[in-house]
């Protein structure tokens, strides 16, 4: 419908025209509903945009606060290794699987972060250094690339799950480092400033509690090695095969820790097999059990290796007992069989002495007048039996010494 109107009465008369349009049917009734819906939709969209923005900002603030808190806690000791939780070496190791050392990612770079300070020992494998990492002292055993097999075997044993024990040297990491001329293979462990049992006894004597503490801790470490722990995170039974005073370290609290597991063997109960390392070296001749010296040991029977460890343990206890100061009386430090074989005996020397002549270290008469030394000397003799099956077990020795310690405590 066309609606129009015109005028010509005066100038600009069309300004006063008022056109009237017919109302569209139903338009005024629908219009308010559409308008309300549009307003509501716009409000919902605005609310959604605001909520999204608010949540995103809140999340960012939480992340920033968490990151700042983490940096505040870790920054002082782990700024170089932000992946590591904890504030000390002990804390770091406590966060890892028992016995496996630091996280592998850290182990792969630890050699570049350690400052070597001084040599603390030398052996056939190489050198042992005192080093510093993250402000703490560590021991660094450095193998040459020619001894890669020995290094790999020792690392493999130390990384055994559930191996960590107070009486076994704590493993930290393994790494390699190129020094420009050859590749060094590093084994990083806990550092004990008192050195080996050999070094300590050479310069110091011990009292009866000190002797028992040392003997008990060595027995505890050996019992833990020999014991099999069943389960999904179990531990195989392990025999040391080179137990001697130079492979036992003295800790600051007077207890001992067994070290140097390069010749150790493991027993797999699932397959009933002994995992023997491909290493021709059998141990230290002076400490070898009779059955090892005359090659009568059954290498397919794991208990044979444990019994050989017990024989060596008896010799180590003899070394400690000689240095036990009772009433100002003690013996000078000596290695086992010092009076009947050369300083560096041959296998033939030891075979004749131990297997043919069946000699054992001498027991001083004064030991019989001291109850503690008398019991300890009895333990030694039961570790030295020619018949390996008759020797004590590490667990039995541990319990016997614990009872002796309890008796000594009651006397004090």
TrEMBL record:
Pfam families: PK_Tyr_Ser-Thr, TGF_beta_GS. Residues 114-404 form the Protein kinase domain. Keywords: ATP-binding, Kinase, Magnesium, Membrane, Metal-binding, Nucleotide-binding, Receptor, Serine/threonine-protein kinase, Signal, Transferase, Transmembrane, Transmembrane helix. The keyword Protein biosynthesis does not apply. The chain crosses the membrane at residues 29-55. Its EC number is 2.7.11.30. GO terms for molecular function: ATP binding; metal ion binding; transmembrane receptor protein serine/threonine kinase activity. It is found in: Membrane. It is a single-pass type I membrane protein. One of its GO terms (biological process) is response to stress. Residues 87-113 form the GS domain. Its main location: membrane. One of its GO terms (cellular component) is receptor complex. It comes from the Eukaryota. Its cofactor is Mg(2+); Mn(2+). SMART domains: GS (SM00467), S_TKc (SM00220). InterPro entries: GS_dom, Kinase-like_dom_sf, Prot_kinase_dom, Protein_kinase_ATP_BS, Ser-Thr/Tyr_kinase_cat_dom, Ser/Thr_kinase_AS, TGFB_receptor. ATP binds at residue 141. It is an enzyme of class 2 (transferase). Belongs to the protein kinase superfamily. TKL Ser/Thr protein kinase family. TGFB receptor subfamily. PANTHER family: RECEPTOR PROTEIN SERINE_THREONINE KINASE, TRANSFORMING GROWTH FACTOR-BETA RECEPTOR TYPE I AND II. This is receptor protein serine/threonine kinase.
């Amino acid at each position: 419908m066309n609606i129009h109107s015109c005028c010509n009465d005066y100038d600009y008369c069309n300004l006063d025209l008022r056109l009237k349009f017919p109302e569209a049917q139903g338009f005024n009734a629908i219009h308010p509903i559409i308008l309300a819906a549009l307003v509501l939709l716009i409000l919902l969209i605005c609310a959604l945009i605001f909520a999204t923005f608010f949540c995103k900002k809140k999340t960012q603030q939480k992340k920033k606060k968490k990151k700042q808190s983490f940096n505040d806690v870790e920054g002082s000791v782990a700024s170089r290794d932000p992946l590591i939780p904890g504030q000390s070496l002990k804390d770091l190791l406590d966060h890892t699987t028992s016995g496996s050392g630091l996280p592998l990612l850290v182990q792969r770079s630890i050699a570049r972060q350690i400052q070597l300070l001084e040599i603390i020992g030398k052996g056939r494998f190489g050198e042992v250094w005192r080093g510093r990492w993250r402000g703490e002292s560590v021991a660094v055993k450095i193998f040459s690339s020619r001894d890669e097999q020995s290094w790999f075997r020792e690392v493999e044993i130390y990384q055994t799950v559930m191996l960590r024990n107070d009486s076994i040297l704590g493993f930290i990491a393994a790494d390699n480092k190129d020094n420009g001329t050859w590749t060094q293979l590093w084994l990083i462990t806990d550092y004990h400033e008192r050195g080996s049992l050999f070094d300590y006894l050479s310069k110091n004597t011990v009292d009866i509690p000190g002797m028992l503490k040392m003997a008990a801790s060595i027995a505890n470490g050996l019992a833990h090695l020999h014991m099999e722990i069943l389960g999904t995170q179990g531990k195989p039974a392990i025999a040391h095969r080179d137990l001697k005073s130079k492979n036992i370290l003295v800790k600051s609290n007077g207890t001992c820790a067994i070290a140097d597991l390069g010749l150790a063997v493991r027993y797999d109960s699932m397959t009933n097999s002994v995992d023997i390392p491909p290493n021709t070296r059998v141990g230290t001749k002076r400490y070898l059990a009779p059955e090892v010296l005359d090659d009568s040991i059954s290498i397919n029977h794991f208990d044979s290796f444990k019994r050989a460890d017990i024989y060596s343990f008896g010799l180590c206890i003899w070394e400690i007992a000689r240095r036990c100061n009772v009433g100002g009386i003690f013996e000078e430090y000596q290695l086992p069989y010092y009076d009947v074989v050369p300083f560096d005996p041959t296998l033939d020397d030891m075979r004749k002495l131990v297997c043919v002549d069946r000699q054992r270290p001498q027991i001083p008469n004064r030991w019989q007048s001291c109850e503690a030394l008398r019991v300890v000397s009895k333990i030694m003799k039961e570790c030295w039996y020619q018949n390996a099956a008759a020797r004590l077990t590490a667990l039995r020795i541990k319990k016997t010494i614990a009872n002796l310690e309890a008796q000594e405590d009651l006397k004090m």
